Amino acid sequence: DRYLLLRRAQTKDHGAGSWECVTGRVDQGEGFLDALRREVREELGVDVTPAFFVGTTHFYRGAPQPENELLGVVFACTVADPAAIRLSHEHDAHRWLTAAEAAAFLDQAQPAARWLRTVIARAAALRRLHPPALLAYWQTHGFETDE
Length: 147
What we know:
Number of domains: 1
CATH topology: Nucleoside Triphosphate Pyrophosphohydrolase
Largest sheet: 3 strands, antiparallel
Oligomer: single chain
Strand content: 25-35%
């Protein structure tokens, strides 16, 4: 399995030049999966299939104040044609790496890189641990409990 790493463009106000995965916000009235698909289309120009839920993350974008507080929901996804990826202005480079390659590549001294290493290691472990029947159920029924 390979994981997509994206380098934030130098024009970004936070984390310019750091490596990340697709990120974004949920718009008012939008579900997590709709937001995921929209953000991926905006940032990569492709559609993805959510494979499984990886976890949540709590962080501050800037100083630890309520207005900077964010909660992230992380999913592992698949893309039918990796060659079809077209980066938006938000990123200036991308790499497909195995979990081991990503761990070696990402700078442990950088907080964002440590977080991404943890996310990739967790995704790799969960991919191995989830029974195929559970993965198939999620593919058919999704993750959200809303009707």
